């Protein structure tokens, strides 16, 4: 039987391995020639155009697809973060508006007593989808604290949005 042909890269590698095991200089020289011929053939094929040669180590075909998928993943995460951040900001604005309106409503009912003023504040806050945390009447001033209602999906890493507002009846 003859020596393995230089046509196959695998056969050339097997020839080189056999040369190392046997210690034959002639076989090693033949394997080196076979490998260099194989490398030249692969280089010529890849120079002919895309798809003409076979993939060799260091080939970068397909790298753009992987990069595009990674960039789409980053873009998707940024969109999700932006939407979530927008929800929290809008929820915070709604809670602030509810606190302001509740304080003004309570200030308008101070003359009927603290219990009725705070009852009106709670009614306003509930209608706006919030939760009244506290209502303190002192003289002609009302201070209310409002938090986003549980189950509205407005909680964030820092907790549910909350706001405090103060209003007075204008008398005194």
UniProtKB/TrEMBL annotation:
Domain Putative Flp pilus-assembly TadG-like N-terminal: 62-107
UniProt KW keywords: Membrane, Transmembrane, Transmembrane helix
InterPro entries per record: Rv3654c-like, Tad_N
Domain of life per record: Bacteria
Transmembrane segments: 63-83
Phosphoprotein among keywords: no
Pfam families reported in the protein's UniProt record: Tad (PF13400)
Residue ranges the record marks as coiled coil: none
Protein name in UniProt: Putative secreted protein
Organism per entry: Saccharothrix espanaensis (strain ATCC 51144 / DSM 44229 / JCM 9112 / NBRC 15066 / NRRL 15764)
């Amino acid at each position: 039987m003859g020596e393995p042909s230089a046509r196959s890269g695998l056969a050339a590698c097997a020839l080189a391995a056999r040369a190392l095991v046997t210690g034959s200089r002639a076989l090693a020289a033949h394997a080196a020639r076979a490998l260099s011929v194989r490398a030249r053939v692969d280089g010529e094929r890849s120079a002919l155009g895309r798809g003409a040669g076979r993939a060799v180590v260091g080939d970068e075909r397909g790298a753009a697809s992987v990069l595009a998928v990674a960039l789409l993943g980053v873009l998707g995460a940024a969109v999700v973060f932006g939407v979530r951040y927008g929800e929290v900001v809008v929820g915070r604005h709604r809670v602030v508006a509810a606190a302001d309106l509740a304080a003004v409503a309570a200030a308008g009912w101070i003359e009927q007593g603290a219990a009725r003023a705070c009852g009106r504040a709670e009614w306003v806050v509930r209608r706006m989808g919030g939760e009244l945390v506290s209502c303190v009447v002192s003289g002609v001033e009302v201070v209310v604290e409002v938090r986003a209602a549980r189950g509205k999906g407005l909680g964030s890493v820092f907790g549910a949005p909350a706001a405090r507002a103060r209003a007075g009846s204008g008398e005194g």
